[in-house]
Amino acid sequence: MSLSHKSIDLKRRMREALRGGGEQAIEKQKATGKLTARERIIALLDPKSFHEYDLFVEHAGRDFDMSEKYLPGDGVVTGTGTINGYAVCVFAQDFTVAGGSLGYMHAKKITKIMDHAMKLKVPLIGINDSGGARIQEGVNSLAGYGEIFFRNTQASGVIPQISVILGPCAGGAVYSPALTDFVFVVDKISKMFITGPEVIKTVLGEEISMEELGGARVQAEITGNAHFFAENEIDCFEQIKQLCSYIPWNNTKKADSFPKKPPRTRQYSIDKLFPTNSRQPYDVKDIIRAISDDSEFFEVHEFWAENIVIGFARMSGNTVGFVANQPLVLAGVLDVDSSDKAARFIRYCDAFNIPLVTLVDLPGYLPGVDQEHAGVIRHGAKVLYAYSEATVPKITVITRKAYGGGYIAMCSSHLRADFVFAWPTAEIAVMGPEGAANIIFRNEIKSADNPEEMRKLKVKEYKDKFANPYVAAAYGYIDAVIEPDETRDMVIHALHISADKIITTPSKKHGIPPF
Ligand code: HXC
Q: What are the tens digits of pLDDT across the range 33-78?
């Protein structure tokens, strides 16, 4: 065959492989508001940067008439490209080909691109749109998932791993994302479950729709499996690009620096946003914006466990990870979910050299039978563990309440915060004045002629003594009492001088966090 004939042959083979599951299947995909696998990758990456590999890989199924079937690319598109000019490895499952199900060679394509990502030390982005293990390939599909899970775990904390759920994803198609750092979902398109509605109906006799069982809102608001929620696929890809601007490309690097910008103080000034009445709630996101470059805050897990706020911002041009109690929701208490949310983010930031800024205003851990029985001891301990373990710069600002276990847990100096600042409004104590007075002055209150008057007196006595930052300051537990409008400068200076801190930790294989 001459060169031109070879070239024609190549083009024919490519055309065939690139047609995916065929026109009808693609039409069905589009009718549900979904892009095709390749369109998704192209929309995500920098223009013209995508290079595809393993286009001619064929499936290895032999049973149930599979050997007669042609599955283009074995239902997954893999390759490399760039985001914001930097290399990334990417795969996108093609639902139009056997429902994006994962057979032996499909898995091989994914593990190959994962190995590239680890070798090149660049992020891995997986677009999942799959019915899970390909049923016809039996144990070989399970083996494929096992190989993926192993690599997800090896890559954890080395390269960023980002998962996008863009279709009905079952079984292994959601367990691999669960092992990655960030999961994105899109309204009405993403569905995640281990066992779908059919199995639930068969086993339990319960009827539920895919959307109600594991739709995007369920995952973003109730389970916390998803970190980011988007209205549509293009919005989702824009969010991924934004995330990529805040994180370093691997664990040996720091995130890119950007030109320093002042906060937009006309809109976000602490003076106006922080209430004078200490019982009045406020939105801590406004305080974050009031001290961040250009008042930009990229929130993670925005709709789940909203009593704690986590996310990325920049201070003096450099990425920081914010962890902040949210007084607007449950007075900012730590509970099972908010502890999980904070602890995982702290560990992400620590693994990827992102300094932590913690804003404290909480009455403590949430009391109650539900919480105790849900394991608030174990979950709450994750926050203690994560902060204690973290060796990145850790700066803490106590704005108002820092009571009890909450004071310790929210990156106190005892868990090795590098600098702890308190506003004059800070109240650092074992518990709130009302509760404390009721316990320690119980007898005086009970035996007083006017118990209510006595209670008020004792609450005031306790408040005067402890509901301020000066007792903690007297012991050196906080480094400075600062005016709220000094916060940004103080934090930036503290971050600057802590940037190259050296911490030696005890030699061990790994710790055993309270998972
Ligand atoms: C083989 C599959 C498949 C699978 C879907 N298809 N899932 N083929 N193996 N796992 C095929 C369908 O047969 C169909 O082929 C095409 O993909 C589209 O599927 P539909 O059912 O028509 O689409 P839809 O109605 O949108 O439903 C999507 C779905 C459903 C919810 C994902 O297909 C489903 O429930 N699939 C099975 C899910 C599952 O139980 N997977 C195994 C998980 S166990 P045709 O030829 O008709 O177009 C697992 C093990 C790892 O993953 C566990 C690790 C812990």
A: 999 999 999 999 999 999 999 999 988 878 888 888 888 899 999 9
DSSP code per residue over 363-376: --BPPSHHHHHTTH
The Cα 46–Cα 86 span in angstroms is 9
Q: Tell me, yes or no, whether 34 lies in a domain.
A: yes
Which domain range does residue 439 map to?
A: 433-466
d(CA 212, ligand 1 centre) in Å: 18
Distance in angstroms (rounded) separating the CA atoms of residues 174 and 168:
10
- Whether 381 and 460 map to the same domain: the answer is no
Instruction: Give the CA radius of gyration of the chain.
Output: 26
Pairing outcome for strands 394-403 and 427-429: parallel
DSSP string across 184-219? EEETTT-EEESS-HHHHHHHH-----HHHHHBHHII
What six digits make up the tokens of 13? 């083979």
Q: By alpha-carbon position, which residue is closest to atom 3 of ligand 1?
A: 131
pLDDT at 421 (0 to 100): 98
In the three-class reduction of DSSP (H, G, I as helix; E, B as strand; rest coil), residue 78 is classed as: strand
Place of tokens 């499996």: 225
Length of the chain: 515
* Residues with C-beta less than 6 Å from any ligand 1 atom: 98-99, 101, 131-135, 142, 145, 168, 170-172, 175, 196, 198
Residue 49 has a pLDDT of 98
- Of the two residues 172 and 361, the one the predictor is more confident about is 361
Question: How many angstroms is it from 196 CA to the middle of ligand 1?
Answer: 9
Together in a domain, 162 and 182:
yes
Q: Does the pTM of the predicted model rise above 0.90? A: yes
Instruction: Assign 290 a pLDDT band (cuts: 50, 70, 90).
Output: very high
| Cα–Cα distance, 357 to 244 (Å, whole number) | 20
77 CA to middle of ligand 1, Å?
18
Q: Is residue 223 part of a domain?
A: yes
Residues 199 and 348 in one domain: no
Domains in the chain, number: 3
Pairing of strands 419-422, 51-53: unpaired
Find out whether 161 and 173 touch, Cβ atoms under 8 Å. no
Whether 481 maps to a domain, the answer reads yes
**Residues near 345 by Cβ (< 8 Å), separated by ≥ 6?**
300, 301, 310, 321, 323
Looking at the fold, whether 416 and 438 belong to one and the same domain comes out as no
Residue 216 shares a structural domain with residue 280: no
Q: Are residues 426 and 454 in the same domain?
A: no
Q: Return d(Cα 110, Cα 176) in angstroms, integer.
A: 11
CA distance 333 to 322: 16
Tell me the C-alpha distance between 36 and 380, whole Å.
42
Mean pLDDT of the chain: 95
Residues 106, 147 contacting (CB under 8 angstroms): no
Mean per-residue pLDDT, 151-163: 98
